[in-house]
Amino acid sequence: MYDFLIVGCGFAGSVLAERLASAGKKILIVDKRDHIAGNAYDYYNEDGILVHKYGPHIFHTNSEEVFKYLSRFTDWRPYEHRVLGSADGQLVPIPINLTTINKLYGKNLTSDEVKDFLASKAEVRNPVLTSEDVVLNTVGKELYEKFFRGYTKKQWDLDPSELDASVTSRVPTRTNTDDRYFTDTFQAMPKHGYTEMFRKMLSHKNISIMLNTDYRDIIEIIPHQNLIYTGPIDSYFDFCFGKLPYRSINFKFETLNQEVYQCTGTINYPTSNLYTRITEFKYLTGQAHQKTTIVYEYPTAEGDPYYPIPRRENQEIYNLYKKLADQTPNVYFTGRLGTYKYYNMDQVVAQSLTLFKKITMQAMSDVQ
After folding, report:
1. Domains along the chain?
2. Among candidates 263, 245, 361, which has minimal Cα distance to 306?
3. Which Gene3D superfamilies does the record associate with it (predicted)?
4. Which H or E run includes 251?
5. CA-to-CA distance for 12 and 219, rounded, in angstroms?
6. What is the pTM assigned to this prediction?
7. 3-state secondary structure string, 56-99?
């Protein structure tokens, strides 16, 4: 008899498995795939280069609790991600900053002057409801067309006017020369890779792991008291309220017989090409190698569900599933897919740590 059957070996499921196992619970964690670590899974390819199978995963967080927790399972390599965007035949920093504006417009503005410049370009939108509203309200039509509209259309197959404001709110506009993609307090990569971090996380004697396993094939056979489900919530309920839409990505990997391919970790292509961006893994991992591996990302509607699509109508469908989930005893839904939210890795870890505390408090009140 297991105390918890956990579906999914990504961040959401693995953090809960480790926490509950450390609290003395007996855990079985299962995954459909043939590996642990979920979408953060990394491995050495045939040329010996460490790559991320499901696209670049760059860790950053403002949460000391999350960083300290993960530090139990890995040493870190400091890494600040930098992204350039291809616009008007040149590469400029993304998110838009003072350097971006000066390069694009051939100006030499100061931080104060660029604020006025952007204000002169901005188109006031009130209320701000969509991703288009966010960008036009901040930088105006011209920069919206150069950096946001095409990229968003490729990524989501929707115009920014059809997406929730939260999508483009994730990418701030800066009036200084800070060219880091993230400004979080903690920015680092697991020194020996994500898979190794997960291996340590799941190495507790109270945790059993079954890979290549669909939970539906074992749920009636293996006795357990509680279920933690990190897969798509609509699938769990057999799509009774209809399918929740997701975006997926096709990854095209290429290993080149040269040490370096591009001048930074990621280059975005907002208006040109069918792919959204190219990432070179050696920037992320710090690995020294005479060859280099890059990955092109082609967003698609088919394939593994990666990104819940933030739109009001999708949220309304999710709310129906959430109501059903809340009425399902001894089953907990968590993670990006289980709660249909576009979370970063650190947010998923924080969510799982919070759920662990909730489960622990529930158990204590049951005993009393």
Report:
1. 2-76+191-242+308-367 (3.40.50.720), 83-169 (no CATH)
2. 245
3. NAD(P)-binding Rossmann-like Domain (3.40.50.720)
4. strand 246-256
5. 19
6. 0.94
7. CCCCEECCHHHHHHHCCCCCEEECCCEEEEEECCEEEEECCCHH
